[in-house]
Amino acid sequence: MNKLLTISSEGDILPEYRGTAIGLLLEYHNLGRQYDSYSNAQLLIGMCMDNRKHLHIPDNFAFIIRSGGANLRHSEFKVSYAVAVGNVRCIALVGHNQCGMVNLISRKEQFIRGLVESAGWQPQAAEEHFLQFAPMFEIGNEIDFVLSEVKRLRLRYPNILVAPLLYQVEDNRLYLIQENTDSDR
Q1: For residue 184, what pLDDT band results from cuts at 50, 70 and 90?
Q2: What is the DSSP letter of 59?
Q3: CA separation (Å) from 96 to 4, 140, 167?
Q4: Which pTM does this prediction carry?
Q5: Which of 93, 90, 39, 36 is nearest to 69 (CA)?
Q6: Domains of the chain: residue spans and CATH
């Protein structure tokens, strides 16, 4: 079973992330490290579009792609751009608990009603829209999805350090997701 690793000191950061932009992210956000100055991004952060999440990081420290559920499958060109042109060598994939992309089917009627009432859609068009896209954006369990997306990104970008993280909405802290086996890395 995967578990969350609390980061309350530099020693809590896994050795493979110490001294990297991933380690710095954890130090800035969780440990209150004094901000350094950056002229270039040090990493790419993929995180959910949820408005309850805010990272404590210095200006220019990171490229950030926000996408429902921290799902970067439909943002791969942007990831490639950050690596190829932005010269980042680390990716932090940050999921969060209480994610709206989990169990999307339970929000179907709310989704349809919202498009009808707020955006002026016809009910049938709103339902077709939901049915077409919900399967693409459903992430299942937040931790399992982050781990599967990290594995996919590691295969796609083998020279890039990719770390699985979870943002806890209740305490606004980042946690490393401990991976089950070495085969996940």
Answers
A1: very low
A2: T
A3: 12, 12, 4
A4: 0.90
A5: 93
A6: 4-102+141-184 (3.40.1050.10), 104-138 (no CATH)
